[in-house]
From TrEMBL, chain A:
It comes from Pseudooceanicola batsensis (strain ATCC BAA-863 / DSM 15984 / KCTC 12145 / HTCC2597). It catalyses: 2 pyruvate + H(+) = (2S)-2-acetolactate + CO2. Keywords: Amino-acid biosynthesis, Branched-chain amino acid biosynthesis, Magnesium, Metal-binding, Thiamine pyrophosphate, Transferase. Its EC number is 2.2.1.6. PANTHER family: ACETOLACTATE SYNTHASE CATALYTIC SUBUNIT, MITOCHONDRIAL, THIAMINE PYROPHOSPHATE ENZYMES. It holds the Pfam family TPP_enzyme_N. GO terms for molecular function: acetolactate synthase activity; flavin adenine dinucleotide binding; magnesium ion binding; thiamine pyrophosphate binding. Transmembrane segments: none annotated. It comes from the Bacteria. This is Acetolactate synthase.
TrEMBL record, chain B:
It catalyses: 2 pyruvate + H(+) = (2S)-2-acetolactate + CO2. Its EC number is 2.2.1.6. Dimer of large and small chains. SUPFAM superfamilies: ACT-like. One of its GO terms (cellular component) is cytosol. Belongs to the acetolactate synthase small subunit family. Pathway: Amino-acid biosynthesis; L-valine biosynthesis; L-valine from pyruvate: step 1/4; Amino-acid biosynthesis; L-isoleucine biosynthesis; L-isoleucine from 2-oxobutanoate: step 1/4. Residues 30-105 form the ACT domain. InterPro entries: Acetalactate_synth_ssu (IPR004789), Acetolactate_synth/TF_NikR_C (IPR027271), Acetolactate_synth_ssu_C (IPR019455), ACT-like_dom_sf (IPR045865), ACT_dom (IPR002912), AHAS_ACT (IPR039557), AHAS_small-like_ACT (IPR054480). This is Acetolactate synthase small subunit. GO terms for molecular function: acetolactate synthase activity; acetolactate synthase regulator activity. Keywords: Amino-acid biosynthesis, Branched-chain amino acid biosynthesis, Transferase.
């Protein structure tokens, strides 16, 4: 029975019917009717951010730490354009978001009205799908379809642009239909014949490796469980992309660490030398592959992905399987068990012996100091002192992000939120707010660099207003560390604009917002300072002054394959050749 | 790169996939894309091609099922086999896209295009233009004392050939519809 209500009421009703409990947003002229409805109910919490970009990243943090879609509500024009970066970020990292934007009334669209922008036009390439709703009767259908599209198949951001007159007008509301609309139903079951082919390959592989990604986490907790079962049962080494950390426990015995440009030596060497690569929910990103024509030259490659366009996009796949990770892994395990749980144990022992030799290189070694805090040391202490906590980590983008991925351990999925594909500086702080909203009693830490952090520092107001005890762990080197590193390696140590003068006093900044600030400059004080941060019940800015010129290693120089890694300060001169210099 | 290994009796690969995926050979393919006829759907398709750097040689779009609100977009594109496969997979991801047919590999198909050509001239040239139009089965749809507008239908190559002949005879302007294509036989 279709109920009659205004478009604005439909929005709130649809959010309730979709199980939404939190919305991140910022009001404005074109969404006032929806905000009026939000004011008159108590089921949905609205978190007022300080900038629309912050709303989208917060919703991303919420989504990634819960597995549910994040919801954003912003106004037309600048509200929508400010949300663009967040949507592009969510698209590249496959994060489900439903973004609602107000629009000028339908009769004014196209007249260059106040705060009018072609929102569906601008956001078409940075959403999975978007809608402009011109008719209140169509609104509830679109709202429900939006949640389905955002979460079904490969997740991603969607946007609904709702003109103000559509919000005011009355129409009929239809509740959600089970299973979602017919027209978008991605295939979740993999082809059994191909899965069997993969099992055969696994049974005879002498040097197999699992290369997993964010798709395992997106597939749900069952996928992580099945992955662990597969690894333990077959004794296959496993590495993961930045996005996939936590799907297999970082403390697990088969874990090789992250792979890729700043991945671990053992992970990259094993990828290069393997004879069977099983890529699960990852996409052969350029940060992962390095030089394509020398990428893992002697391996057969299997690729499990729910998105058919990921397969054969970058690297030729011998065993392509389109399907949801959990569904495919379930079938794979079933078939492998039914065929007698075979692996080539002798060969695997040799393979592990080789891997242990690579592990012995100890690629994360760095020069310690008792004078100055090394960023790696700061993260090791943070790891040590927070290990027992119910902990969630977000990061900004740059050196600190890579060190966090190298030095922190993630034993569960959905505990690690970072901007992988788009590499958005300014992601981590608002994301930590979204995570904390979803997990009020957990310890949420944003590992940041001072430059990234400043990009969305206005969200301190949000953290304080909503009493969100997010910890901002800033590794402050007064540099754009990763840019500086590349300028050192690639541009003759000409450090063009890669440092900021006039940095704020972060302690005073925290206090100005009504939060707590902690400054730490001496390695001896670090443990106490970190404990003080953890124990403080409220938002903290932790200004950790670290070594200014530390470089992030290991590193695959651009244009080089996995087995040409740089392991430390030595031999970095001319490491990047002309062909690699054009790459980013 | 070697070709995909295909097992006997397997149903999961089309014959198309027998070609090595990462070959350098540039191929021309005609794709038929069935979409919901809704606002912005053409922009999504075109945006995909421009955003990812794919070629469009020809593009035709019109509603083909009024009650079902379905439009058919026919695209002629060029690329390596890997690029063509990417284009098809990327098109398939667009929410309002129902089906993507690669008419070039799914068996024999017919392709037709319509063109209008304005030819001006007098005397022998005018007579010759009319004679050639007759040979090509082009119709005169407008005529003045010193001009014709010809309507011609056919495969793109036929239209190219006719246009080449008209050029020295006073071809002033031409409009082409782009390719419409259907598979031959009883199936869709």
């Amino acid at each position: 029975m279709a109920r009659q209500m205004t478009g604005a009421k439909m929005v709130v009703q649809a959010l309730k019917d979709q199980g939404v409990d939190t919305v991140f947003g910022y009001p404005g002229g074109a969404v006032l009717p929806i905000y009026d409805e939000i004011f008159q109910q108590n089921d949905i919490r609205h978190i007022l951010v300080r900038h629309e970009q912050g709303a989208v990243h917060a919703a991303e943090g919420y989504a990634r730490s819960t597995g549910k879609p994040g919801v954003v509500l912003v106004t037309s024009g600048p509200g929508a354009t400010n949300a663009v970066t967040g949507m592009a970020d969510a698209l590249l990292d496959s994060i489900p978001l439903v973004v609602l934007t107000g629009q000028v009334p339908t009769f004014m669209i196209g007249s260059d009205a106040f705060q009018e922008a072609d929102t569906v036009g601008i956001t078409r390439p940075c959403t999975k799908h978007n809608w402009l709703v011109r008719d209140t009767d169509a609104l509830s259908g679109v709202l429900h379809e939006a949640f389905h599209v955002a979460t079904a198949g490969r997740p991603g951001p969607v946007l609904i642009d709702i003109p103000k007159d559509v919000q005011f007008a009355t129409g009929s509301y239809a509740p959600p239909v089970k299973g979602g609309p017919k027209r978008y139903q991605p295939q979740v079951k993999g082809d059994i014949e191909t899965i069997t082919e993969l099992v055969e390959a696994l049974e005879t592989a002498k040097k197999p490796i699992l290369y997993t990604g964010g798709g395992v986490i997106n597939s749900g907790d069952a996928a992580s469980q099945l992955l662990r079962e597969l690894v333990d049962a077959t004794n296959t080494p496993i590495t993961s992309t930045l996005m996939g950390l936590g799907a297999y426990p970082g403390s697990g015995k088969n874990w090789l660490g992250m792979l890729g440009m700043h991945g671990l030596y053992e992970a990259n060497m094993a990828m290069h030398d393997c004879d069977l690569m099983i890529c699960i929910g990852a996409r052969f990103d350029d940060r992962i592959t390095g030089r394509i024509d020398a990428f893992s030259p002697h391996s057969r490659k299997a690729h499990i992905d729910i998105d058919p366009s990921s397969i054969n996009k970058v690297v030729h796949t011998d065993i392509p399987i389109v399907g949801d990770v959990a569904h495919v892994l379930e079938d794979l395990l079933k078939i492998w068990k039914a065929r007698g749980r075979k692996t080539d144990r002798e060969a695997l022992d040799r393979w592990w012996k080789q891997i242990d030799e690579w592990r012995a290189v100890n690629c994360l070694t760095y020069k310690t100091s008792d004078q100055v805090i090394k960023p790696q040391y700061a993260l090791q202490r943070l790891e040590e002192l927070t290990r027992g906590h119910d902990r969630y980590i977000t990061t900004e983008v740059g050196q600190h992000q890579m060190w966090a991925a190298q030095f922190l351990t993630f034993d569960e999925p959905k505990r690690w939120m970072t901007s992988g594909g788009l590499g958005t500086m300014g992601y981590g702080f608002p994301a930590s707010i979204g995570v904390q909203m979803a997990h009020r009693d957990s310890l949420v830490i944003n590992v940041a660099g001072e430059a990234s952090w400043l990009m969305n520092m206005q969200e301190m107001g949000t953290a304080v207003q909503f009493r969100l005890p997010v910890k901002q762990f800033i590794l402050n080197n007064e540099r754009l560390g990763m840019v500086r590193q590349w300028q050192e390696l690639l541009h003759g140590e000409r450090y063009s604009h890669s440092w900021s003068e006039a940095l704020p006093d972060f302690v005073k900044l925290a206090e100005a917002f009504g939060a707590k600030g902690i400054l730490c400059t001496d390695p001896k004080d670090l443990d106490d300072a970190i404990m003080e941060m953890i124990e403080y019940d409220g938002p903290v800015i932790f200004d950790c002054l670290v070594e200014k010129h530390e470089n992030c290693f290991p590193m695959i120089p651009s244009g080089e394959p996995h087995n040409k890694m740089l392991l430390g300060e030595v031999s970095t001169k001319d490491a990047i050749k002309e062909g690699g210099a054009v790459l980013v | 790169m070697s070709a995909l290994q295909i097992k006997k009796g397997s149903t999961k690969h089309s014959a198309y996939n027998l070609r090595p995926t990462f070959s350098d050979v540039i191929e021309t393919h005609t794709l038929a894309v069935l979409v919901d006829n809704e606002a912005g759907v053409l922009a999504r398709v075109i945006g995909l091609f421009s955003g990812r750097g794919y070629n469009i040689e020809s593009l035709t779009v019109a509603e083909v099922d009024h009650t079902g609100h379905l439009s058919r977009i026919t695209i002629v594109t060029r690329g390596t086999p890997q690029v063509i496969e990417q284009i098809k997979a990327q098109l398939g991801r667009i929410v309002p896209v129902h089906r993507v047919h690669d008419l070039t590999v799914e068996g024999p198909s017919v392709e037709r295009e319509l063109a209008l050509l304005k030819v001006t001239g007098a005397g022998d040239k005018r007579v010759e233009a009319l004679r050639l139009a007759d040979i090509f089965r082009a119709n005169v749809v407008d005529s003045t004392l010193d001009s014709f507008v010809f309507e011609i239908t056919g495969a793109p190559e036929k239209i190219d050939a006719f246009a080449d002949l008209m050029r020295p005879l006073g071809l002033l302007e031409m409009a082409r519809t782009g390719v419409a294509a259907l598979s031959r036989g009883a199936t869709t």
